[in-house]
């Protein structure tokens, strides 16, 4: 496992991070979920990402239980706030940040997280209020650093213009099939010392190659799951699946699997500090971790783009 600095912070994170969206706390049986976390630590993953809204707190509670006997300095822990936890509890007001951070710490069974992230931008709360509340959280020692997910360049610039704690991380969706952050978000954040923690580097499993044109999803796949498949509904089609199949010979020539190729493609960017994987089996954790350190030259990158057209 290779490691990188997270933006301007002093956090050293594994290139592969273990995520818990849709999987832990409900989507994956408890025994397998525990095995995934154990395998992640065994292969050198030290970065674990979650959010209060994942399974409405159950993902955080699960991680708190599984990690309680792991020395706190062995892992970097990140969580998030914004989405509704109840009809009355949502957004990035000072009251919500204080309330939800305390609740996350209780569920995670820690006295601080390493990274507290705004899960989205809150247009209903003055940005000054949000940033002041995040600054207080840092000053109180409840989080070491702060970050955001899926903010626009204008929103990022507005936050950076305010006094107090500064963002060190951005968490955008990014993959071979979703490259929207490249033109503006990546260069802006690079100039400001903000590292990228990208989510869905396998496009919710589409880049694993398991979905074939003209065929129903495999019964054990995320797309076939009632709990985890909703995000994929209508997002991809046979044209995309055919393009992904054209990547297989490239991966084989490199001696890597298709998921490893897709994750290595994401990690080729120096702006990316880590790629978040979501795994339902420990074997997936180990396979995806194998993408760390895989190098792709210019010729391979050109062939990948041609395959996906």
Describe this structure in words.
With 309 residues, this protein is α/β, with parallel strands linked by helices. The protein has one domain (3-308): Alpha-Beta Barrel (TIM Barrel), CATH 3.20.20.100. The chain is built from eleven helices and ten strands. The strands form two sheets. Strands 3-4-5-6-7-8-9-10 form an eight-stranded parallel barrel, surrounded by five helices. The protein has a two-stranded antiparallel ribbon with strand order 1-2. Helix 1 runs parallel beside helix 10, helix 2 packs parallel to helix 3 and helix 3 packs parallel to helix 4.
Short recap of the structure:
With about 300 residues, the chain is an alpha/beta fold.
Summed up, the domain count is 1
Number of helices: 11
- Radius of gyration, in angstroms, nearest whole number: 19 Å
User: How does the overall form come out from the CA principal axes?
Assistant: globular
Q: Largest sheet at a glance?
A: 8 strands, parallel, barrel
CATH homologous superfamily, by name? NADP-dependent oxidoreductase domain
According to CATH, what is the class? Alpha Beta
Helix/strand-derived class?
Answer: alpha/beta
The CATH architecture = Alpha-Beta Barrel
Task: State the end-to-end CA separation.
Answer: 31 Å
